[in-house]
Amino acid sequence: YSLEQNYPNPFNPSTTIRYQLPQDGLVTLKIYDILGREVTTLVNEEKTKGRYEVYFNATNFASGVYLYRIKVNDYVAVKKMLMLK
Question: What does DSSP assign to residue 37?
Fold first, then answer.
């Protein structure tokens, strides 16, 4: 499994998040604000093994640091990203 750093970062208003699965599984990819409140869910579905890209448009979000968290089977990873308006 891998979760890559979003690109571009910092971003305005959109960015791409890439991840890779070595096996099939239920993928959840969520965005949280710096206080840990969930602001949106980008992925919540079964995926087959492979590489994926998810587009995140933050036009309606405030500037600041956001966290993105992926969970697949027993794998969990979190990374930070910066939205600058």
Answer: -
Name, in order, each residue with C-beta under 8 angstroms of 60's C-beta and a sequence gap of 6 or more: none
CA distances from 62 to 32, 41, 66 (A): 12, 17, 10
Question: 23 is written with which tokens?
Answer: 């096996």
* pTM for this predicted structure: 0.95
Ordered by start, the domain boundaries in the chain are: 2-83
Q: Which CATH class is domain 2-83?
A: mainly beta
pLDDT in tens, 7-37: 999 999 999 999 999 999 999 999 999 999 9
